[in-house]
Amino acid sequence: MDPFCLKKLNKERLERRAAILLTDLTDGRDRVVKETDPVAGKLGEAIRKAFLTGQSGVIEIDGSSFFLNVYLPSPRLVVIGAVHISEALAPMAKAAGYEMEIIDPRSAFATPERFPDVAVYADWPHDVLLERPLDSYCAMAVLSHDPKIDDPALEMALKAGCFYIGALGSRTTHAKRIERLKSLGFNDDHTSLINAPIGLDIGAVGPQEIAVAIIGGVIKAFRARDNLGKDGN
Q1: Alpha carbon 78 to chain centroid, angstroms
Q2: Which PANTHER family match (predicted)?
Q3: Residue 172 lies in a domain
Q4: Same structural domain, 131 and 215
């Protein structure tokens, strides 16, 4: 591999941005394609599909062969609130291949004993997410039911362009949430990105079924995602 391409590829991977190492099998030349790079025609369509699926492979375009080596950041699920739904969600997220973490300043709830296989941060979302920034390969599930905890997390998720944002609560609760977010400068286009009620509409009852609805919604959004890399502003 060309040293320049390797350096560029490593930089994208280090900063959790998707990239494809495109090799022209006719002459062996390499090129790094970022998700935001415009590529026209059939090759551009094939590259876009590869970014969505994450699948590497050989493609044939107008008599030429290319190998697409796809590098996607590991999807990350950030859960706000160490609640019963979070306990049910943790093993499901792991089984689905999502790196999950829980943030909740209520130290009585956010304990390693309750979540032995999950990174737990007993701190305020704003402080944790400044140290561990969100990006377009992150999903956020807001479950604490406390605006002081939830709202700052939603604000940061919208600005980061998370591929999925869901919030627990009734329609009345969500309407009040939207008004608070609008007072911070967000508009209808921004707030419409929040899935509320959270998860797929499967008539879920109880923590376990709600957790199934959430992970289903996250997976669906990840497989159908669009405009990755654009922030929520």
Answers
A1: 8
A2: ALDEHYDE OXIDOREDUCTASE MOLYBDENUM COFACTOR ASSEMBLY PROTEIN (PTHR30388), MOLYBDENUM COFACTOR INSERTION CHAPERONE PAOD (PTHR30388:SF4)
A3: yes
A4: yes
Last residue of a domain, which of 37, 71, 105?
Answer: 71
Residue 35: which of 59, 13, 5 has the closest Cα? 13
10 is in which domain, residue-wise?
A: 3-71
**Is the Cα dihedral 89, 94, 97, 99 positive or negative?**
positive
Evaluate whether 168 touches 139 at the Cβ level (below 8 Å).
no
Higher-pLDDT residue of 174, 225: 174
Quick one: 137 and 123 in the same domain?
Answer: yes
> Of 22, 46, 71, which residue is a domain's last?
71
- Report how far residue 88's alpha carbon sits from residue 45's, in angstroms, rounded to the nearest whole number: 38
β partners of residue 20? 33, 70
Give CA 54 to chain center in angstroms. 14
This prediction's pTM = 0.81
Q: What is the pLDDT of residues 114-167, one digit of tens each?
A: 999 899 999 999 999 999 999 999 999 999 999 999 999 999 999 999 999 999
* Helices 84-95 & 206-223 angle (0-180, nearest 10): 40
pLDDT tens digits along 42-74: 999 999 889 888 889 999 988 889 999 999 898
> What is the Cα gyration radius of the chain?
20
Tokens at 38, concatenated: 């415009």
Residues 6+ apart with CB under 8 A from 152: 124, 125, 126
Tens-place pLDDT, residues 164-206: 999 998 889 999 999 999 999 999 999 999 999 999 999 999 9
On whether both 104 and 193 belong to a single domain, the answer is: yes
Give the separation between CA 131 and CA 24, rounded to whole angstroms.
39
